[in-house]
Amino acid sequence: MRSDYKKTHRNTKLAISRHSRSDVVKTSFVTALTVTVWAAAAAASAETAQSSTPFSVIVSFTEDWGSGACGEGVVTNNSSVSRPWEITVDLPGYVTNYWNSEISYLTNPYHEGSAMAHSWRVVGGEWNKLLEPAASTTFGFCIDRTQLPETAPTDDASTHMEHPQSGTTGDFIDLATFGLTYGSDHTDHEGLVGGRTAITTEALLAYNNLRAFIGLAPATLDDVGAWAFANTLTNNTQAWGNDQVGVGLWYAMQGAKVGWMADDGFDPQVIADIERTARLGTTEDVMAMVVAYGHEGFAAYLTENDHVDAFINTLKMEPHYAGWMHDRAHGWLSIEGVAIAHDVNHLTVLSHDQMRPFMNDTWDWPQWPALEVSQPRVLEYFQSMVVLGDPLEDHLEDTLGPPFENPVVPPPSGC
């Protein structure tokens, strides 16, 4: 489905070069892996004005057999003084072996004694712990994707933790109600800065409003979640507990954030621009962008049916919130042979200043594999979330029909 609207609000193109990946990643095979880097408290206290992040790390897989993998990380001291290094990485599995470092669970700072599902604390050994300015060192590891990490003794050893501020928000349900983990940064309310908001079931309302616009009946969270599990867009092949409805809400949010764009209007930078505008700008500016880049008639449809608030509120939601992006919705589906679904999902994760899309947990580094996926495929992938179709096929091109009379979809049972 294409729009004939003239694109009058085109902003700066994606600033990150698609050819810069080779300058950063030197190994022959790089997995679709998100890396989180946290500086140790002691190191941070000694930081100079020349570097706001003392250490950076690039993690790559050298072997991968599906159920497990081995790889290495290269840690670099970006500061102007010598210092011992300590970083945190998100690894998609249980660490079974490591060398040239000490690797342990990262303790959840909000729930004392509980481990974070995919986050690991890495410190140097006696022989490589101290790094000179601009110096690098390498550590190695192996992971088992089928083994669940153990947790320290707690009243509830599950990583599906209730958030103290979760529950209902007005008429809507907070994603953290279905479970909360810390497999990625910026997951709780303290990470909701710059207009970012928690993910709630208002996203399902915006999602079904978009489905109604293209002539489709409303879907439930279970519908969307079942689709995600069936299409390898999750961590596991089987849903446990509230996983299906939680994953369904997460992908409904993603579809509503992106699926409104017309084929010839799509640009990753526009997604960053409209999310930033929704969070920090005006309703008028957001709707002007919908007119410029959206499906023909969609802006008028939102306005005439009082759907504007749900649309804008969904654009404000932070994808990392509650940890579902990594701990449940980490899709392994290969896309164009250069990335997996998880990488492309990072389209809606913005840099700290909210100027760039496709950013990873640190808000400072792009999700490199996603930058290699063609833009038409990126849009089609997000369109598939709206029509619940094959993520690797074309969507919405011939779908548009008379708007569906969209009834109110009740919240999931038991909530």
H-E string: HHEEEEEEEEEEEHHHHHHHHEEHH
The tally of structural domains comes to 2
Multimerization status:
single chain
For the biggest sheet, the summary is:
4 strands, antiparallel
Task: Kindly list the characteristics that best describe this protein.
three-stranded antiparallel beta sheet; 415 residues; four-stranded antiparallel beta sheet; alpha+beta; disordered N terminus; 13 strands; Immunoglobulin-like; globular
Protein architecture, described:
26% of the residues lie in helices and 17% in strands. The chain is α+β, with helices and mostly antiparallel strands. Helix 3 packs across helix 9 and helix 4 packs across helix 5. It folds into two domains: 110 residues, Sandwich (Immunoglobulin-like), CATH 2.60.40.290; 220 residues, no CATH class. A four-stranded antiparallel β-sheet has the order 1-2-9-5, with no helix packed on it. It starts with 20 loop residues before the first helix and ends in a 28-residue tail after the last helix. It is built from twelve helices and 13 strands. 48% of the residues are buried. The N terminus is likely disordered. Strand 12 and strand 13 form a beta hairpin.
Can you lay out the helices and strands and say which pair or pack?
Layout: H1 21-24, H2 41-45, E1 55-64, E2 68-77, E3 83-84, E4 86-90, E5 94-99, E6 101-107, E7 115-124, E8 130-131, E9 136-144, E10 168-169, E11 172-173, H3 202-213, H4 221-230, H5 243-258, H6 268-280, H7 283-293, H8 298-304, H9 308-315, H10 324-327, E12 334-335, E13 339-340, H11 341-345, H12 375-387
Helix pairs in contact: 3-5, 3-9, 4-5, 5-12, 6-7
